[in-house]
Specification:
The chain contains 16 helices and 33 strands. It is an alpha/beta fold. Strands 6-11-5-12-13-14-22 form a seven-stranded parallel β-sheet, sandwiched between helices. It is globular, with a radius of gyration of 26 Å.
Length: about 750
């Protein structure tokens, strides 16, 4: 199931893209590839001369190429000193002899990883008349690094929107009539093709969906097939949107670098990136980590999707500490399709397509291809697998696999099947999809799948029907609950930093779409992934930035993390897709709480230079750290710090027998003057936690206070897990009720 969430659920079933194949140049070379080349800028070189200097690294044979055959694809100015160019391996090797050369590597390809969610997240229901929530992001520019945008979608209308801030320096690169406005204030493409740079028009539809979630303006009557009906609105509907298209059929990291580079130049306040590497990379080798660091140096907040490789441990990506890493959770809305078995047992599943004319006079026979075919692909209803199985007029049972549910349904329908039931494998538990099926269908949980299989065994003539109840609120599994696909920690690149940071809505989310799938005038779609949870948090960050324009990216992240909640709507601990309590490595600090994040009381701030001793402490060489921070550094031993020593809002550590660790933290008062806070600790099982001092006081706003926390692993304590979790809470004294929570994560070795 995890692959199904990697991008969007109505396109091709290929989610991890192959590298872009470059055509041969006029010189007759047939093995050109796009390389990302890093170089060291000479002292005194003006930025205006960078591109010309970059061309000196190219082989002399390219000098005669015409402008449309130039080898340089992108010239970078911000994220790195370097460029992307089409080269042969031999030409890339020859560059090593040139003065100022640092490295060259072939670019990699990255995968692209709502009407109801603002209300679910606690925003006032009448979003335009509410008098709080920081004017809903007004004055903030969100840069979307994505797959383009449908500029004429009503979610991007500028009715009532003010002009962009004076600092905006971007542009709109659509051809023809005026296509940008005061909502969609910029659109550029960095997708390189053999024909040059593409237009920012959406091809994959992913970018319109994520942009609508983050900052779409209100659209009444939004629905798909009449389901999830309501007013679709982004989390920050008064914020401006700028689209930087870095993905089409591929998401090549040279294009990603160029998109981030331009967004920094253009003056965005936030970057929302629902894209990530196929696996975790060291930060100096990860273009999103590189671009994000340069962004936070410029005061730009960056949120990224955590990845869709859950529920397996240590799969989280985009895990640099200067990035807000967002996992995915559910909402308490379902689009119900109930399977009514012949023994009168009901199994509640989901389907976005809810036909009104599916009323068989009697229950239909069930066929389970996995039980009657030796062809494994038949169990998953893969293309061509059912042609020799009698499914005509029957309900066909398909196992959840790597194929899209819609494609499974097409195979069933093409072979005469009347309906389909898809059930989860064990890993996906209770996470079910509401998708635009091509025939009557229901996607049920693993547990209900076991009930179904037991029923098939118990009778020689199993039958069922499917009934459709439409959109239901508050009737689903406990919410929020972790979505099965959401990638989990601990971080492999930096175990001293708890990742993911936070979770937000990412399962069955409605937002803008590039084409109509139900013949609607205003197209919307319901899709799933951490690609959807990320822009929810980007919108939250825009609200905070609008309310507190002088806050740093680290302060905004701190506000989000220290005010999160860890209980579902029933008051029980947030659970995983298996209906067991989620751990801190599943959900980080917990689920975002928008209104509390706007007024957190205290924040943990980090300056960009504070990351240098942390990066040195990861064992990176001075050159590798320099590549990230773009200046010379000194990684001498006294300056090194472990990851957990960074002034992060959470604590994450590995404790062996007898280990004792002491970490320092500094908090800044952003609540009210003359305030006092006292500490309260919920210690992880088997760990003693001491905080000094236990009371901190502030006379004025922006005053700082420091404290130390000592973690000691206790001997002879029986633990129920190799993971320990707890919290350190600073509670304010007085009527304001500030509660600043730092999550504690421990791995015992």
């Amino acid at each position: 199931m995890k692959t199904l969430f990697l991008i969007f659920l109505t396109l091709t079933s290929t989610f991890f893209f192959s590298s872009f194949s470059q055509e041969a140049s006029a010189s007759g070379e047939t093995d050109l590839e796009t390389y990302i080349v890093s170089v060291e800028k000479p002292a005194g070189l003006l930025e205006s001369n960078l591109h010309d200097w970059y061309t000196t690294f190219l082989p002399e044979t390219t000098a005669s190429l015409s402008s449309n055959q130039q080898r340089i694809v992108h010239s970078y100015r911000n994220v790195i000193t370097g460029f992307a160019a089409r080269l042969t391996p031999q030409e890339a090797k020859a560059m090593e002899q040139k003065e100022g050369f640092i490295s060259a590597r072939v670019q990699r390809s990255f995968p692209l990883h709502t009407t109801f969610t603002p209300k679910f997240l606690g925003l006032p229901q009448n979003i335009l008349r509410a008098g709080n929530a920081s004017n809903y992001g007004e004055g903030v520019i969100i840069g979307m690094i994505d797959s383009g945008i449908k500029y004429d979608h009503p979610s991007f209308s500028d009715k009532g929107m003010p002009p962009p801030p004076a600092r905006w320096r971007g542009r709109c690169d659509f051809n023809g009539k005026q296509t940008c406005n005061n909502k969609l204030i910029g659109a550029r493409s960095f997708v390189s093709t053999v024909r040059g740079i593409d237009l920012p028009w959406e091809e994959a539809y992913h970018g319109s969906h994520t942009s609508g979630i983050a900052a779409g303006c209100p659209v009444e009557g939004a629905n798909v097939f009449g389901q999830a009906n309501g007013t679709a609105t982004g989390i920050a509907p008064r914020a401006h949107v700028a689209m930087y298209k870095a993905c089409a059929v591929t998401c090549d990291d040279g294009d990603l670098l160029a998109a981030i580079d331009a967004a920094i130049d253009d003056g965005v306040d936030l970057l929302s990136i629902s894209i990530g590497p196929p696996s975790p990379f060291p930060f100096y080798y990860d273009v999103i980590a590189l671009g994000a660091f340069r962004a936070i140096q410029k005061g730009i907040f960056v949120s990224c999707s955590a990845g869709n490789d859950g529920p397996y441990p240590s799969t989280v990506i985009n895990d640099a500490p200067w990035i807000l890493t967002v996992g995915a959770s559910t909402i308490d809305r379902e689009i119900r399709a109930t399977v009514n078995l012949g023994n009168n047992v009901e199994l509640h599943g989901q389907s976005l397509f809810q036909p009104k004319d599916f009323h068989p006079r009697q229950p239909l026979p069930i066929v389970h291809p996995a039980a009657i075919s030796n062809n494994e692909s038949a169990a998953f209803c893969e293309k061509g697998s059912l042609k020799n199985i009698d499914v005509k007029g029957k309900i066909v049972i398909c196992h959840m696999g790597q194929l899209r549910i819609e494609d499974q349904g097409k195979e069933v329908k093409d072979n005469g099947g009347a309906a389909m039931i898809v059930f989860n494998e064990q890993a996906d538990g209770y996470s079910t999809l509401a998708v635009a099926n091509v025939l009557p269908a229901s996607h049920i949980s693993y547990k209900d799948g076991l009930v179904l299989k037991n029923y098939l065994i118990s009778t020689q003539s199993p039958t069922a029907t499917i009934s459709f109840q439409g959109t239901l609120i508050g009737k689903s599994q406990p919410a929020p609950q972790m979505a099965s696909f959401s990638s989990r920690g601990p971080s492999t690149q930096s175990p001293g930093i708890l990742k993911p940071d936070i979770v937000g809505p990412g399962l069955n989310i409605l937002s803008a779409w590039g084409v109509s799938i139900d013949e609607a005038t205003n197209p919307f779609n319901v899709i799933s992934g951490t690609s959807m949870s990320c822009p929810h948090l980007s919108g939250v960050a825009a609200l905070i930035k609008s309310a507190h324009p002088d806050w740093s990216p680290a302060a905004i992240k701190s506000a989000i993390l220290t005010t999160a909640y860890t209980a579902d709507l029933n008051g029980n601990p947030i659970s995983t897709e298996q209906n067991v309590s989620a751990t801190v490595f599943d959900m980080g600090s917990g689920h975002v709480h928008i209104l509390r994040a706007l007024n957190p009381g205290l924040v943990y701030d980090i300056e960009p230079d504070d990351y240098i001793p942390y990066l040195c402490g990861l064992g990176y060489s001075e050159q590798q750290v320099r590549y990230i921070v773009q200046r010379k550094v000194n990684c001498s031993t006294p300056t090194l710090i472990p990851g957990a020593q960074l002034n992060y809002p959470t604590f994450s550590m590995v404790l062996g027998a007898g280990d004792q660790m002491t970490y320092n933290r500094t908090v800044t008062n952003v609540g009210r003057p003359f305030s006092t806070y006292f500490s309260k600790v919920l210690s992880p099982q088997g760990v003693d936690v001491k905080v000094m001092p236990s009371v901190i006081r502030f006379e004025d706003l922006n005053d700082k206070a420091s404290y130390t926390v000592t973690f000691t692993r206790l001997e002879n304590v029986t633990r129920s897990s190799i993971i320990g979790q707890g919290s350190l809470v600073w509670n304010s004294i007085g009527d304001d009720g500030y509660k600043v929570v730092s999550t504690i994560a421990v791995v015992f070795v």
